[in-house]
Amino acid sequence: MNCSSCIVMDVLFEIKMEGEANLSLLNDVILHLNREHGIVKFDDNILTIKEASVREFVYFCNDHMEPEMVYFRIDNEDWKPIKQINAVIDVQWIDEIIIKELVTCYYQPIVNGNEEIYAYELLARFQHEDGSTLYPNEVFAAAKERGRLYALDRLCRMNAVKAAARIDKKAFINFIPTSIYSPEHCLKSTVALANKLNVDPSELVFEVVETEKVNDIDHLKKILAYYNEKGFKYALDDVGEGFSTTEVLADLKPHYMKLDRQYVNGVANDITKQKNALSFLEHALMNGSTPLAEGIEVKEDFEWLQTKGYQLFQGYLFGKPSPTPIKHTKKV
User: Fold this and answer.
1) How far apart (Å, rounded) are the C-alpha atoms in residues 68 and 76?
2) Which InterPro entries does the entry link to (predicted)?
3) DSSP 210-244
């Protein structure tokens, strides 16, 4: 059974009103919204209303109330000023993306030191139903705003497992740790799908996306331990920021560590970046992780990193993301 966070249901808005003037209008608000059957629950000074009635409430609030003392939230998140509520309503389109599964996978090669394809990173690409393109950062931002991050992450993860079944190389699959409440529950469907498609678990590498900052390292450790128990591998993406301490890396024990492009681009001629790259390499080898440099665009950076001991490489120099996996890379 799916977690309710992975199912796209109607969004319910909690509205909190403060201040004597606003509270004196509670009965008027309730009567006004009940005409539209918009109130789901009323408790003290908090109303729970359906999305269809939100704009009507906002109009009433702006005309008759003190909006600066009215707040809203969805999915038990932090309270926000009512003036920000339109940002949630305006991204309703994300529901369609998830419900209709308007996502495809693109493949970007990861190569070894001989420029032979070692694996592919599977990257989600999105489009509206009319075929127009949506940028991933736009999609994930909308999902977060609307409380759909959990459902979107699951959709992308499952779609990537299906794409992995079509290749004979390892597949790197991104996931957002904060979208997983319980590894045993939230990742069960991922394991079941891999088994159904006869995908060797050791060929799947789940990549922690650090752009969604991980504050709870213990929770992340539980997720990675679950993946490890099921035979999957895992990688830390964008290493160089939050996961840079020796203690954290030793606890997480990643199979792969990816040096972020900001430390890679121009490394052949930048002493500061060279120091960072060498320190990263030392940490990776110390923890038994395979070091991978991403964002390589020029031959000089590839050669410098290769001679220093980096084992895997990714970037436009070897191939851009494409809807079908390239079978070999062009020698640089």
Assistant:
1) 20
2) Cyclic-di-GMP_PDE-like (IPR050706), EAL_dom (IPR001633), EAL_sf (IPR035919)
3) TTS----HHHHHHHHHHHHHTT-EEEEEEETSTT-
Task: Give helix 26-34 / helix 54-64 axis angle, nearest 10°.
Answer: 150
**Count of Cβ atoms closer than 10 Å to residue 119 Cβ:** 23
DSSP for residue 116: -
| pLDDT at residue 276 greater than cutoff 60 | yes
Q: What is the DSSP letter of 166?
A: T
H helices within 7-53, ranges in order? 20-23, 26-34
- Residue 188 structure tokens: 């069960």
Any idea what DSSP says for residue 62? H
Query: DSSP 3-state assignment of 196?
Result: helix
The Cα 155–Cα 112 span in angstroms is 30
Q: Which of 301, 283, 299 has its CA nearest to residue 291?
A: 283
Q: Which long-range contacts (CB under 8 A, 24 or more apart) does 267-271 make?
A: 267/301, 267/304, 267/305, 268/298, 268/300, 268/301, 268/303, 268/304, 269/300
At 177, is the pLDDT very low, low, confident or very high (cuts 50, 70, 90)?
Answer: confident
| Predicted local distance difference test score (pLDDT) of residue 75 | 82
Instruction: Considering only residues 271 and 3, tell me which one the structure prediction assigns the higher pLDDT.
Output: 271
Question: Residue 125 pLDDT more than 70?
Answer: yes
Domains and their CATH numbers in the chain: 4-89 (3.30.70), 93-314 (3.20.20.450)
Place of tokens 């992995």: 164
**Which amino acid does the sequence have at 43?**
D
Q: 295 — phi, psi (to 5°)?
A: 85, 25
| DSSP-derived pairing of the beta strands 12-17 and 70-73 | antiparallel
**Interior/surface letters 32-64, b for 16+ CB within 10 angstroms, e for the rest:** bbeeeebbeebeeeebebbeebbeebbebbeee
Residue 5 has pLDDT above 60, yes or no: no
In this prediction, what percent of the chain has a pLDDT beyond 70?
89
Alpha helices in 166-216, H assignment, sequence order: 183-186, 188-196
- Enter the pTM of the model: 0.86
